[in-house]
Write a structure and sequence with these properties.
The complex is a heterotrimer of chains A (753), B (81) and C (159).
Chain A (H helix, E strand, L loop, with lengths): L18 H6 L14 E7 L5 E7 L1 H5 L3 E6 L20 H8 L4 E2 L5 E7 L2 H8 L3 E6 L6 H5 L25 E9 L2 H6 L3 E9 L2 E2 L7 E6 L5 E5 L4 H12 L6 E5 L15 H11 L3 E4 L2 H7 L2 E2 L2 E9 L5 E13 L6 H7 L9 E9 L13 H19 L3 H8 L18 H10 L1 H4 L6 E10 L4 E9 L5 E5 L7 H13 L6 E5 L16 H27 L7 E4 L2 E4 L10 E2 H6 L8 E9 L5 E11 L6 E11 L6 H20 L30 E6 L21 H13 L10 H10 L1
Parallel strand pairs in A: 1-13, 11-12, 16-17, 20-21, 27-28
Antiparallel strand pairs in A: 1-5, 2-4, 2-6, 3-5, 7-17, 8-15, 9-14, 10-11, 10-13, 15-16, 18-26, 19-20, 19-25, 22-23, 23-24, 26-27
Chain B lengths: L1 E4 L13 E4 L4 H11 L1 H10 E5 L2 E3 L12 E6 L5
Parallel strand pairs in B: 1-5
Antiparallel strand pairs in B: 1-2, 3-4, 3-5
Helix pairs in contact in B: 1-2
Chain C lengths: L2 E7 L2 E7 L5 H8 L18 E4 L2 E4 L12 E3 L12 H8 L9 H14 L5 H7 L11 H14 L5
Parallel strand pairs in C: 1-5
Antiparallel strand pairs in C: 1-2, 3-4, 3-5
Helix pairs in contact in C: 2-5
Classes of the chains: A alpha+beta (753), B alpha+beta (81), C alpha+beta (159).
Amino acid sequence: MSEAMDFKVIGTRPIRPDGVDKVTGRASFGADFSLPGMLEGAVLRSPHAHARIKSIKTDAALAASGVKAVVTGADFPQVAAGAIEGGEGGGDFADLAGNVIARGKVRYHGHAVAAVAAQSRAQALAALALIEVEYETLPAVLSLDAALAESAPLIDEGLMTSGLAEPATAPSNLASVIEMGNGDLDAGFADAALIVERRYQTPTVHQGYIEPHACVGRWGQDDQAMLWCCTQGAFDVRSMTAKVLGQPVGSLKVIPSEIGGGFGGKTTVYLEPLALLLSKKSGRPVRMVMTREEVFRATGPASAATIDLRMGFSQDGKITAAEATMAYEAGAFPGSPVGPGTMCVFAPYRIANFRIKGMDVLVNKPKAAAYRAPGAPQALFATESAMDEAADKLGIDPIELRLRNAVEEGDSAIYGPKFGPIGLRACLEAAAAHPHYTKAKDAGVGRGVAVGFWFNVGLQSSAEVHINEDGTVTVIEGNPDIGGSRASMALMAAETLGVPYESVRVVVADTETAGFTNVTGGSRVTFATGMAVVEASKDIIAQCCSRAASLWSTDEDMVEWRDGAVHPRPGVNVEAKPLSLKDLAGKAGRTGGPLLGKASLNARGAGPGFSVNLCDALVDQETGQVQVKAFTAIQDAGKAIHPSYVEGQLQGGAVQGIGWALNEEYVYSPEGVMENAGFLDYRIPVASDLPMIDTQIIEVPNPGHPYGVRGVGETPIVAPLAAVANAVSASAGVRMTELPLSPPRVLEALDQA
Amino acid sequence: MAKVHVPFDLRHLAEGAAVLEVRGTCYRSLMAALRDRYPVLEAALVRDKAFVLDGEILDSPLLEAVAPASEIHFLPRIGGG
Amino acid sequence: MKVHVQTEVNGEAVEFLCDPTATLLDVLRDNLGLRGSKEGCGTGDCGACSVELDGALACSCLILAAETQGRSVATIEGVATPEALHPLQSHLLKSAGLQCGVCTPGIVVAAKHLLEEDPNPTEEAVRYFLAGNLCRCTGYDKIIRAVLDAAAEMRGEAA
């Protein structure tokens, strides 16, 4: 446990190992790779949100100048249903395959229908126009209400709702239902002095990573294939692509490039199977790069949600009962994150009487993908808005109201298990004492408070630690570095081995070089892969102790590792100078061969992350424009390995959440065509929209990690939605319950007030 | 015997029980004992839920030791971004 | 018909053949192998492809390669010297002003242009100048601080 630990390098802020490459433009991202003889691929996408494909004619395209291959759904094997493992819950391989390329039916505008490889991108695009697809259009289902209506058009004619007490008797767009509950809801509400009951709505939004999806695929005549791509998980790309193509996993090698943002959106495959099949047909390597428009139309939005919430409070602010009915849009295939949403919605609080119902609903939009704490931002937008309203009506300080209900170590979470050490109370106390909270507000400014929560996960990781002959260290791991994780790995290896940070280099390796490692996601890399790096470093220490003992002709239990070197144990009568890692590296060949440490594990002990956000916002009463004047993100990191990158996670998540709250949404035409598929019209926050984002890192060590780490990356996006909305509501004098709080919506609320 | 908390939405498969006392020394034997008593419930748990042993969400359990005092929950699966 | 273009990139004379419709970004990346400029949108909204053309800041995805005939282009590859990083680059590293790093080349090129025009910008001036350079990871805080620190260093003040 880290409380008593005296760290040498952990907690410092060194420059990341890959930094110079990234500030000079030398780092190689997804679209930066090329091979001799490479073709350019392009995708024909559905012009309809919902239609049956009656026929596809590709002859003219195949005969066009420069075209070397064309593929359609008919070229791909049928993939059997089966759960996708690896922490991306809710996914199914058959659905994944159906999303990669349509078969029989297109389910959203932008769904891939065919793909072409040609000598140039211009030729490939010209050939797309020659593919003749005959569609029978079907009515598009674009909202939760429309999808759940009695006579709604069916997106999947075979979909029977799962999770019902009585098995479904007819297909519908309701993929699954989840229910949780405890206590006596009626009695709880009967005890309430105040009941807050409202409907909260959040729109479809996109992760908005700046780098579009890109890959190069090369298929050999021996059926051995290689993929270079930007992904959060090379091993996940390998298993998914192999499954979609019906190939053995071992026949595919995936080489991850640097990754230009993902936030959950690059944990699945879109182009990769298409590029490989085009390569197989053409006998040439094929590069495929999405345009920004394609990224919006065909990749991972986060689910829109409608949450009906009812919370009862006693006069002194205790929650007496809570009820939530949560419907999340899955997009065109089942698998919205409503499950985790139902677990998060009341997770920060002690509530004896509650009912929660979650619904996973199909609509004719792109299949929802993971987005940072999937399912939690929508859920806690609702709860934290209701908490704010209750605080206001009860005349209790909003932080105090939360403190009166906050979960602590030993409490059972509303979803069942007991919490270990958690930092919610510490975050709330820090928020109450923070200068942001104690200073007076400027005129007209509203101040919002909100709590965030995410589970964090462990999953499987591998690491190797190689000691070079001069004592320098090479760490080999398999998690693409999306935000400075090489630095964290190097810090943990340096701390464990007692060597300078600068002597450690970290390599993010491909699927044939690194041991199996799950995705860069779930806030797991510093926790789980960090644990593997620490274990592999300890393996090195054990080998060093054994070799030193041999050199000193003594037993292993007569020596110990201390300050980066093997020493004789105190009192042991050995005349020897301590042997450092460098000393032993120089003698490695003569003491048994190279020093190579390994670890592979399925990490247990992930600790949940809580946060508190404070937001000051000013509403322009004339225009409805909202200005964020100040923002503070406070979060429990367990132990911050590299504090700058922890702060960066808090700041980045805060701003994504501010975008979700204020501007971002998919705007659809009645026909189901997204009308704002570009950064000009889908407006993510820009530098001039924002103030500095203040941060405070709380450290309640996680006993499940050797240095106390708990995941950090996802929790930061959870609290901002309600923190902003509560601030806006206060400034506007109207309770805002539907995001985004764009000027027209705020103006409308002001007019009605 | 370990305490198995039956998910709210699957209690109809366990004759309405919220908690079951189940014998087993590891995940495998516990689930086998559960299968003997409530085969439909066991199948639904394996298909749709994540296994939680004493507060720890286990991604792919098999041999994990279960103690007589263990508390077991089944939760919706969590994806990560 | 391809177009023959002679121009200057980072102070070196270059010539290439390109389609009349090819953008400067396409040619930098595909013909000249200068892949530090990134395509984030292709519509001039994200700034990841920022370059200077005859000293003016521009999105290279909005410039036709053929337009650069006889002109001068400066890209991210020309910012650092063999001996040293530009102060902006050093301060971005020191401040952790990048996470994924894909927007970083554009930020460096744009911020360098700003500091050449205004060596002592306010925070607000930096924010408005960089409003055309999208970053989705950092929330901009550490980027803005890095630019202000680099400006201070370049003015000879302790950063």
